[in-house]
Amino acid sequence: MIRVRVSPEPIDLAAEHARVERGGAVATFTGLVRADDGVEELTLEHYPGATEAALERLAEEATARWSLAAATIVHRVGAMRPGERIVFVAACAPHRAAALEACAFLIDRLKIDAPFWKRERRGTEARWVEQRDGDRGAAARWD
Amino acid sequence: MRVLYFAWVRERIGTGEEQVDPPAGTATVAALVDWLAGRGEGHAAAFADRTRLRAAVDQVFVSLDAPIAGAREVALFPPVTGG
Q1: Which residues in chain B have Cβ-Cβ distances shorter than 8 Å to A116?
Q2: Distance in Å, alpha carbon of A62 to nearest chain B alpha carbon
Q3: N or C: which end of chain A has fewer CB within 10 A?
Q4: ipTM tops 0.90
Q5: C-beta atoms of A114 and B82 within 8 A
Q6: pTM of the entire structure?
Q7: Chain A residues 105-134 within an 8 A CB cutoff of chain B
Q8: Architecture field, domain B2-77
Q9: Architecture of domain A2-129
Q10: What is the DSSP string of A63-112?
């Protein structure tokens, strides 16, 4: 079972976790807005339609590669505050190794394959976040 | 052809979407970008550094040398930063 959702609504962890519990092991990753460098607001822009399609393809690839019972990708868009959840990914498999690997694959590849863009605001100053070399390296290990 | 812009590409151009009719012979995304860059100062600024530009043709990520023959929608944007 694949679940993909891109929405400005806050992410309900308990509900999402319950939905993905379809087998012996669930591994999850949750990304939060960092507060440690003076960011007051983070805004996520995306490419409607293409984003959902990219996330569906990722979830399908993970499901086939690790024989998952379920995969979930929920990504928030719009404006959010430090401490709020940006993204939740989860993989459910019969055993932990597949669930953990698939979960890492989903978040590593999401960072370079899905059309989202982050803009940070500190006071009155806003700037677009640059892609990090480390993100490309982390994604490449799944090639 | 519908052209979409995102993030700082959209901000520099001043709009997120345009309907354009590039000249015959505009064969690739790069050629389309060359032509679009001549539409105004904002376009020129958005497309000044091609190494920081990414593209999708009909919602599929492609390189800038990809063909655009028959494309209905081309999107131009910076490297993605989700997650």
Answers
A1: 80-83
A2: 17
A3: C
A4: yes
A5: yes
A6: 0.94
A7: 107, 110-119, 128-131
A8: Roll (3.10)
A9: Alpha-Beta Complex (3.90)
A10: HHHHT-SEEEEEEE-EEE-TTSEEEEEEEEESSHHHHHHHHHHHHHHHHH
